[in-house]
Design a protein that fits this description.
Blueprint (H helix, E strand, L loop, with lengths): L8 H24 E4 L7 E4 L7 H11 L22
Length: about 90
């Protein structure tokens, strides 16, 4: 017997909108995040000041772009003062 799963228009639009949201989140992250190597391959994020002005938005973008995998394991957060802003 052959199995055929029929998909609805609603399901198709949901997947399409989800993929569009993921691509938009990825593009926004690309503008503001630099991924580099420190201890391991691509283990360090350098994030622009602009995007962390709204931390909830930043975390939402990361969750959307990574299917909720960003920050799912222990990580270290460090704020380094901008050398041009120090007196």
């Amino acid at each position: 017997m052959f199995y055929h799963r029929s998909s609805s228009e609603t399901e198709y639009m949901s997947i399409r909108n989800s993929e569009r949201a993921k691509i938009e989140a990825e593009n926004e992250i690309i503008k503001h995040v630099l991924i580099t190597d420190y201890f391991g391959y691509q283990d360090t994020l350098t994030v622009s000041e602009e995007i962390v002005q709204d931390p909830d938005n930043f975390l939402k973008l990361m969750a959307t772009a990574t299917n909720n995998q960003a920050f799912s394991s222990c990580c270290h957060f460090e704020v380094k003062p901008n050398s041009s802003n120090t007196t």
